[in-house]
Write a structure and sequence with these properties.
Number of helices: 4
Order of helices and strands: HEHEEEEEEEHEH
Radius of gyration: 16 Å
Strand content: 35-45%
Helix content: 25-40%
Shape: globular
Distance between the termini: 38 Å
Length: 159
């Protein structure tokens, strides 16, 4: 790995860690199944990475499968408890579990849900900005690998 790539990854991880820590601190004060949406200001958009919404959800497997969806923005879904399935196409299913991070891309069809008869707890954030396009170009994130496995962070499950 090139040295500049390693430094960029360290910076990105640090920024994400700081922002996720702020998000989790705020979300700890929320009741489960809460959400909040934001209207970014021009200065946020100029910075290149801005949040459009955050939330948490206790989800159960739907009795009737949902048809999937396509977002206009990026989203991260962090699974705190439970396991289930993520679909990046109707034919391509990936098993997911607590500690996994789903990266949802604009314009890409997807769906996900807990396993049949099960449930999970998730935190999510919707965001956008030119920084993500740069990271995609440098192949730090890819629609071909939408499930990342950072693992569980004990700070997130202590309540």
């Amino acid at each position: 790995m090139k040295l500049e790539n390693m430094y960029l990854r360290i910076i990105i991880i640090h920024l994400i860690d700081i922002e996720m820590a702020k998000l989790i601190t705020w979300m700890d004060k929320m009741i489960i199944n809460g959400s909040r949406y934001y209207q970014p200001e021009k200065r946020d958009m100029d910075w290149g990475l801005y949040v459009l919404g955050t939330g948490s959800k206790h989800a159960v497997c739907p009795e009737v499968p949902n048809p999937g969806r396509i977002l206009n923005d990026y989203a991260l879904v962090y699974l705190l408890r439970g396991e289930g399935v993520y679909y990046s196409s109707p034919e391509h299913a990936v098993r997911v579990k607590a500690g996994d991070l789903l990266v949802l891309f604009p314009g890409v069809w997807h769906k996900y849900h807990p396993e049949r008869g099960g449930s999970w707890d998730e935190y999510w954030i919707i965001y956008n900005g030119g920084v993500m396009e740069h990271l995609l170009e440098k192949q730090y994130f890819s629609p071909e690998k939408p499930v990342l496995c950072p693992g569980l962070d004990c700070r997130l499950i202590e309540q």
